[in-house]
Each structure stands twice: as C-alpha cells, then as structure tokens.
Amino acid sequence: MVAAAELVQGRKNAAGRCAIDLVGRDPLRREVEHGALMAGQYVILRVFQNGWLPGDVHQAALRNVDEFAVAFLTDVIASYVQPFAATSIDETWRAQLNELEATVWWSESEPHLGQYAAKQLLTPVEAVTTVIEALALLIRLPQLELIRPLPGTARPRAATHHAVDEKVLSRVRGLLAKAESTSFPEEAEALSAKAQELMTKYALDRVLIDADTSVPDLPGARRIWLDTPYVDAKALLVDVVSTANRCRAIFASAWGFMTVVGDESDLDAVELLTTSLLVQATRAMIATGNQRARTADSRSRSYRKSFLIAYATRIGERLAEANTTTIAESPDSARLLPVLASHQLKVDEAFDTLFPQARNRSISIANANGWDAGRAAADRAHLQARRAVGK
Question: How large a percentage of the chain has pLDDT more than 90?
Fold first, then answer.
C-alpha cells in the first residue's frame, strides 16, 4: 500500500522497487500472495462506496494501466462480489459484471496471486509490480455520486409498465446498426433520425401513462465513457442527445465520462443513439479529410474538433425541432405539455440532488472550416419525425 501511495505521488519507480524488495528472485511467499488480494479488497470497497461501478473501474483501468493490471482488477471485483446473494445485487451491477466476465475462476484452496501470475505468464516481480500499479489507480479514483445501490443493499424491482419495451429497443438497435454499416451518409443519418423518432414516440406514450398512475417512474442515472481524442466535443454530442431525450448530463472532464440523469428508458435511448452518432460523426469527420480537394487544414486537430462541435450543435438543434414537431402532431399534444413539464421537473430535481454544485462550461471553436463542414454534415440528417410508430 505504501508503494502504491508513492506511485500516486509521482514516484514512477516505486512499484518495481517495492516488488524487488518483496520478492527479489524468490518465488512468491504466502504472506505476499494473501496480502495482494486483501489489499485489493480493502481499497475496492472504498472505491465502490465512493460511487464507482464495476464498469467505471474497468474503463478507468483501460485508460491508465496495462492489460495485466486490468485483469487483476477484474479479479478483485469478482472476489468482492462473490459473497453477496444474486438477489441483493443491483441489475446494473449484474449487467456490468457479466460484460466484464468477472468471475472467481481460480481455485480458492490456493492464494489468488500465484494462479493469476501463472495465467498471465508473469514473473513474481512482474506480478507484484502489477498489483501495486492496480492499487495505485484505485487510490487515485475520486469520490463520485452513488447512482446505484451497493451489493447487499439492492432490492428486486417490481415488474411494472415502466419496464423498457424490448421490441422498441430491438427496432432502434436494428436501425442504428444499419446506420453504422452503410457507406452512404444520407442513409445513415435518415436511419438515425428514424431511431430517434421511434424512441421519442415511445417516450411520449410512456409519460402519458405515467401521468395516469400513482407510481411514477423515478429518474435514474448512468455513466457514458468517451474515448480520446476530442473528448469535450464528444461530450457535447452526449449532452444534446440527453437534452432531446428529456435527460440532464454532466461531464467529468478529468476522467472522460458523462453522467446522464433521467428515466431508465430515456437513458437507454441516450446511450443507444449517442453510441451510434459518435461512430457516424467520426466517420463523417474523417471523410471530409479524404476528399480529393482535401487540404492539410481538413486533417488538423483544430478542424476535426471544430467539426465535431458543430456537428453536435446542429444535431441538437434538429433533434429539438423534431421533438417539437412530434409533440405538435400527437393526438394528445395539449395534454403532453404540462405532463412533460412535470416530468422534466422530476429529472431536474434528481440532477440537482446529485450535482448541487454543477456549473455550465463553454467550449471554444478554433477552426471556421471545421465548423462549417460539421454543420453541413449534421444538416444532411433530416432529423424530422415523419410518421407515428406502428403506422
């Protein structure tokens, strides 16, 4: 733990030096093996109590340590969760654990570290160095908002009409998959628009149903991690899609993720659409630099960042226009407006409770050509609702 703390303080050789002191050229000693997993369990408990989820720890590890430390942390997570009954583990936790394949694969009759080192083909010094680097990352992780219940405290959700309609999600996923696979930008953008239309129609029907019940769907929260480069520009795209889907979002720029607050089905819509739009926006950005009349400017960082900012801004405008049209064309449009206002109030209250110190921040445009190209690419999306779901 001392070496991990030194590593956090910037002493880059602390992990290797400590590993040599602990192991040298000898095999792993039992006290070292037992101490490794115990230290991991001790620190991961604090990390989870500070609001991090298994998927968040994994994403932070992918960005900050090597694949050996990622694998060790996955084992630490699996060992932490093992004692809890499945019924007491939140569904988001279960989904993330399954995605990480976080299971106790090792024999518990022997210490974990030796089996881990053999599986990863690491020497004793390399294995201990990896443990120290993994612990250093955990120590660095700041406190976050607790957005899902900890293992042992979750309660099974009652089946209600608030459950996300899997048929709608399946259709949306199909449209977005086609949008990502086509080589024609106009077709991709039209498919994305249709996906947003489906989710909007579904959401509007749902809020009307909620208004007639005494058990409203309470807002939840989800984190969306963004890949470099141009993370702040990509965060803007997540933000505008969140707004269009009746959610609120906040950007943790130091770590590169967005926290989105809203109803579970709206959060599904945000996650599905932003994941696809980020792929499509990046492809459109690169395509502008691959044209015959390309210039060095169209391949510069300032151009590409400005392109993505403009793309996100224009997509936000068009999604807002599409929502206005969809509401106006609804047979219950007069009733929808106050219901949506009440819905938004609940989301705002949940957001303000989680993030009482949230502040707006601006993002600068450094390349006019990139801005113009980004808006032009977004304009081709034709994000207008054209027909109702099922018609």
Answer: 44
Burial class (CB in 10 A: 0-12, 13-18, 19+), 213: exposed
Q: Mean pLDDT in the chain?
A: 83
Residues 74-90: what's their mean pLDDT?
A: 96
DSSP assignments along 248-277, one per residue: EEEEETTTTEEEEEE-HHHHHHHHHHHHHH
| CA dihedral for 47, 225, 315, 244, sign (positive or negative) | negative
Give 2-57 pLDDT, tens digit per residue: 555 555 555 566 666 777 777 766 788 888 888 888 899 999 999 999 999 999 99
| 196-207 pLDDT per residue, tens | 888 888 888 877
Cis peptide before 229 (omega within 30 of 0): yes
pLDDT of residue 274: 92
Residue 256 in contact with residue 63, Cβ under 8 Å? yes
Cβ pair 252, 156 in contact under 8 A: no
Tokens at 60, concatenated: 């932070």
- Are residues 385 and 200 in contact, defined by beta-carbon separation less than 8 angstroms? yes
Q: Say whether pLDDT at 290 is over 70.
A: no
To 5 degrees, how large is the angle CA 107–CA 111–CA 113?
105
Phi, psi of 123 (to 5 degrees): -75, 165
Q: Which residues contact 11 (CB under 8 A, 6 or more apart)?
A: none
Query: pTM for the complete prediction?
Result: 0.83
Q: How many CB atoms lie within 10 A of CB 128?
A: 27
